Amino acid sequence: MDFLYTLVILLYLGVAGLLVYLVLVQEPKQGAGDLMGASADLFSARGVTGGLYRLTVILGVIFVALALLIGLWPR
Question: Which regions span the lipid bilayer (predicted)?
């Protein structure tokens, strides 16, 4: 059971590192309207940027699921 817990922790750290990398690689959106929430195309990313955005969202969901799993893991 300790081996499985260690494996989940290592997976969690790997996902966290990859998530940080993907967030830093993405290009920022242009325009001052984004600061006030006036961006109409928040979820309509296209091309490579859209792929990075989708991968970031998927890794974010995996990160949260692993965090909940680790938090609820009986020790």
Answer: 6-25, 52-73
